Amino acid sequence: MRIAIIGFGVVGQGLVEIMRDKGEILRQQDGLDIQIVAVCDTVKGSVYHPQGLDAKLLLQAIQSTGSLDSYPESAGLVRGRDSVSTIRDTDADVIVEATWTNLETGEPAITHIRTAFHAGKHVVTSNKGPVALAYKELKSLADAGGLLWGIEGTVMSGTPALRLGTTALAGCTIQAVRGILNGTTNFILTRMEDGATYTEALAEAQRLGYAEADPTADVEGYDALGKLLILAAVVFDHPITAHQVSRQGITHLTPQDIQHARAQGKRWKLIAELQRTDDGVQARVAPQMIDLAHPLAGVSGATNAITYVTDLLGEVTLVGPGAGRRETGFALLSDLLEIHRISA
Fold this sequence. Notes:
Layout: E1 2-6, H1 10-30, E2 35-41, E3 45-48, H2 55-65, E4 78-79, H3 83-89, E5 94-97, H4 109-118, E6 122-125, H5 128-144, E7 149-150, H6 153-156, H7 161-168, E8 174-180, H8 183-193, H9 198-207, H10 216-219, H11 222-234, E9 245-247, H12 255-263, E10 266-277, E11 280-291, E12 303-310, E13 314-321, H13 325-343
Parallel strand pairs: 1-2, 1-5, 5-6, 6-7, 9-11
Antiparallel strand pairs: 2-3, 3-4, 8-10, 8-12, 10-11, 12-13
Helix pairs in contact: 1-2, 1-13, 3-4, 4-5, 5-11, 8-9
């Protein structure tokens, strides 16, 4: 399998680290021989070689200089291609789209994925924007070309939240989805229950790298909202827009609110929720007091979880990491393995 990686930040590097460390195991156990033929990043540069690039040397170049310009020169190596020409003109079988997420326009990822499908290439991505905003169009393009689009990493990183809903629970009617889909807010609420104020908990989350300098996307519920759009489109086959989601963050919660929940045998969690109704789908993101007996109440720290409410099995809850370098790299790998199995 020949792949081109578009975007070489934390996620793209995480995938290459896995390939460096487990490439031989993947070949022996799964029959998957991944060859990186191109890497393109708007900041770090671009390299392409038709005979493949060395995973170790790619990572060494980034670690030593922060740029792909220091990747060793060799006969046949091409530098400087932009993302669109890398997708369109290189001989990759699969495009790994790992650029930054934009939940307002979905760009540049939508253009990257559209270009790949027009060029007859499979795509895997961890980028929420294209799935949240253009799932129906892009899925139709893929289907029309007999192509595969792997998107597992867009909801809970490497934890298979989408495969659970679309594959493992096939045959069930999923009536509702409820989840802790943002690890930053869950960490903050866990620390507040330990006695910290919101400000103290946020500062700790920022020190540990769970929260950005501007935490708005997390603490005001926008990140969880984006993941709800994906779940609605992919699992419910009912695309919705951000304007159809009721959204409230956690910034208003006080230590008194935490104590009030504890006194009732409950715990605050930022819950992203979809519910089937006679009129379609209702969606909201909001803090809720969860009974301590429910599995979601026991999910602490930066961990994520999702509960599917089904007609045949009742409630099924999946717990696991929702972010991280290797965790999201694994999500991309799991999609590559799925393409390999289907295409074999």
